[in-house]
Specification:
139 residues; 1 helix; mainly alpha; 0% strand; single chain
Length: 139
């Protein structure tokens, strides 16, 4: 017990006192591997593959039609709402970023009168003679 003082305490506390060799079996290892793989497959039943392609095409067509229907519903609702608001005299300021929402909506009959509805008023030549005005009324 050479590491202890006369009073029994350690001489150099915290220092390494000794080494013990231990065999771990670890070695340096270097490895290089190269390789490739290829697979060739051929379906045994082409009918199922064709049916799958047809089903996928039908599903895509169905989704496109559903999307077109939703777009049409949106545009009709926009047209209706914009038209009703324009008839009521409500619209966005022309410089507003939202004015373009209803910019392509045209209201033709806002007051209930057909725009092409016109009456012609016959014109008679103007005369300065009193006899051209006709006889007295009631007489």
């Amino acid at each position: 017990m050479r590491d202890l003082d006369e009073d029994g305490s350690l001489d150099n506390p915290g220092n390494i006192l000794y080494y013990v060799p231990t065999r771990t079996g670890q070695k340096d290892n270097y490895n290089l591997s190269l390789g490739f793989s290829a697979t060739i497959s051929q379906p045994l039943d082409r009918e199922l593959q064709d049916q799958c392609k047809e089903a996928a095409a039908a599903n895509i067509t169905l989704m496109q039609q559903a999307s077109a229907n939703k777009r049409l519903d949106f545009e009709i609702a926009r047209l209706k709402n914009c038209g009703e608001l324009m008839k009521a005299g409500i619209y966005f300021h022309p410089q507003s970023q939202y004015a373009k929402i209803c910019a392509d909506v045209i209201v033709t009959n806002p007051g209930g009168v057909i725009p092409q509805h016109r009456h012609s008023i016959p014109t008679t030549p103007v005369s300065t003679k009193a006899e051209d005005l006709g006889g007295p009324i009631g007489g």
